[in-house]
Amino acid sequence: MCVRSAPIFGCVPSPIMLIDTHCHLDAAEFDADRDAVASQARQAGVGIIVVPSIEPNNFQQVIDISVQYPHCCYALGMHPMYIDTASPSDIKALHALIRQQLSTENKLVAVGEIGLDFFVTKQNRETQEYFFAEQLKIANECNLPVILHVRRAVDEVLKYLRRHKVSGGIAHAFNGSRQQAEAFIQLGFKLGFGGAMTYPRALNIRELATSLPLESIVLETDAPDIPPQWIGTKARNNPAELAKIAQVLADLRVMEVAQIIEITSKNAVQILPKLAGLCTPLQVLH
């Protein structure tokens, strides 16, 4: 049994606080200037950063980042692109670590980044599906939401979510059809939109970002990946770019950016309830 802890940070996020629901601040690309990147994000109004793990080798690093930076929290899980060297013992170790972290005050908010990727690594489909299902079981037992990686495998991911019920989560970097988006929403999920939405040629993503219920959308950067249009595809993405990404969504929906920030931040807290107490005194977006 997992110990289910209450919200841990003791206050409610400000409605003008941006929440980056997906940022790999632990990535090697940030080794040279991680402190500056974290500080710049705060200055840009990003009050919460969710840092998901990708493999056992970086579990401790994402935990340590959440300790080092007060506005960071984390998720624990094994990414489908990094499971070729994993074994069933890693599932047991992950489960034990999550139980341990939930038994104390901590910043563990989800199981993730988990999912399926049949774009880059579809030859190991059976292995991916095994680890995805096992991690969904952990999330179910521990009453944690999940952060999903879904690429060229939306219908398969939905099949497993129907088979292994979890308490919702985020379909990160969503790029499926409207029907698939609605299926995720019906299962209690939010959809993550970030840098890809900023490209004028990303017609499907922009149409979904414009017309889906705003209550189903959360914001993310996926930094250092998926850089927005104004940086260029070869550049390193940063969590500070979330403010401009929010402005793009506001422009697409013909809304004030403050409304976008307030609603998407509330959405993030709703789907990742342990964010409810993580807040900072930022008042930078006027």
Description:
The protein has 286 residues and is an alpha/beta fold. The chain has one domain: Metal-dependent hydrolases (TIM Barrel). It has nine helices and eight strands. Strand 1 (18-20), helix 1 and strand 2 form a beta-alpha-beta unit. Helix 3 (88-102) packs parallel to helix 4 and helix 8 crosses helix 9. The protein is globular, with a radius of gyration of 17 Å.
Q: Nutshell version of this structure?
A:
With 286 residues, the chain is an alpha/beta fold. The chain has helices at residues 34-43, 59-68, 88-102, 125-142, 154-163, 178-186, 203-211, 242-253, 257-271, and strands at residues 18-20, 46-52, 72-76, 108-117, 146-151, 169-172, 189-193, 217-219.
Distance between the termini: 46 Å
Largest sheet geometry: 8 strands, parallel
How many domain modules?
Answer: 1
Strand order of the largest sheet: 1-2-3-4-5-6-7-8
CATH superfamily annotation: Metal-dependent hydrolases
- Gross morphology is globular
Q: How large is the radius of gyration?
A: 17 Å
User: Mean pLDDT score, rounded?
Assistant: 92
CATH architecture: Alpha-Beta Barrel
- Under CATH at level 1, the class stands as Alpha Beta
Counting H and I runs of at least 4 residues, what is the number of helices? 9
User: Structural class of the secondary elements?
Assistant: alpha/beta
Percent strand equals 15-25%
Number of strands: 8
